């Protein structure tokens, strides 16, 4: 960086920021008051910065410290650094899952006091760093806390957490620099991406996740020792499985299939065949009827004889759902087995993908099963439990599913008005989370309402169809 500054090579400065901090061209452009297209041209070298006022703008926008400003040939700033008033928001250390100090990480309170961006703006964040932080946090983290952390992931905040990425950059240049610490950081980042998936829209995390997978692939190709290679392969497989699911959610079946092949290879290389259980469980959401049931049964073949109870509970819950959809009453017994497995499970400790499983999600699985079976008595009980979980959290992806199932239950008992109300809530939640999965869950509601001709029904169906058409282009 010092060499780039001394040579006044702003393109190299931007490339280094992009590489090591994971900052997007759009964010750089916003900081230095240049368009994203101009930033791209500068980074490619087709445009060179020569004007003094642009150097000043870049230095100010990137909040360069005085040594960097002087290396660029600019005068040092005399404005004292901004002091954050923490009298009403005392700094609270975020608990870390690996026991490492987290004093350098932004606390939730400090983000509340100083975060410059809206909490519901997940697009312009330093995702690799955010995923690493989230992956290290212990126990459940709600959507609000994750968005508070996202709001704090400015370039300045990311720069204070440079050590992990310095280690990674050294490791990417050769196997001799790879160590347990670097592997653990990459594993934590994979966990973080899985946790972010049920909080942020798919489009918001796809690019950061693919960058993460590319870095893992580079390390695997660098000739690490067998021990490191197996760990890298396992975390690459866990990341690729998530990428396959997100690519499907973004309506990119080709990309989804490619990542599925990567996850299968990684599962074989690492010896963690259970990765394929996750892959096939995700695939079951992309099909219907007997094909969905067969995908779940295939996924269960990759479970070990004992252990991994969180994954087991998830697969049994999905089996119950699909049996119910086929009208098979065995679904009730399978759901009981799922509850038993969940009672033994430790979702926040088992696998990267099991963090999503909580009492609210299990209630949602029960609700879906009883709705599909037409069991009105159990629908009311399961619906109340699921609604309670939705009221306590702001997981819009889960809310979309729960509201869609409650809507269908209301329609089955003949309450059209309540069915429309909950279908509206499901649609709004799916729109907020940009979830294809949530929209597809309304398909049964659409079929049930199709024969009705009153205005409220036609308006709802029109809005669901418009949402499907208007889901924006993906970066896949």
What would your notes on this structure say?
This protein has 27 helices and no strands. The two termini are about 30 Å apart.
In terms of structural class, how would the helical and strand content be classed?
mainly alpha
Oligomer: single chain
Give helix and strand order, one letter per element, not per position. HHHHHHHHHHHHHHHHHHHHHHHHHHH
Principal-axes shape call? globular
Share of helix among residues? 55-70%
Largest sheet: none
How many beta-strand segments? 0
Low-confidence stretches: 80-123, 154-165
* Secondary structure tally, helices: 27
Give the overall average pLDDT: 78
Alpha-carbon Rg, integer: 24 Å
Distance between the termini: 31 Å
Strand residue percentage: under 5%
Summarize the structure.
The protein has 27 helices and no strands. It is mainly alpha-helical.
What order do the helices and strands come in, and which of them pair?
Layout: H1 2-6, H2 10-21, H3 25-32, H4 36-44, H5 52-61, H6 66-71, H7 108-114, H8 127-136, H9 143-151, H10 155-159, H11 163-172, H12 180-197, H13 202-220, H14 226-249, H15 253-270, H16 274-284, H17 289-300, H18 309-325, H19 330-344, H20 347-350, H21 359-373, H22 376-392, H23 396-412, H24 416-433, H25 436-440, H26 443-449, H27 455-470
Helix pairs in contact: 2-4, 3-4, 3-5, 8-12, 12-13, 12-14, 13-14, 14-15, 14-16, 15-16, 16-17, 17-18, 18-19, 18-21, 19-21, 21-22, 21-23, 22-23, 23-24, 23-26, 24-27
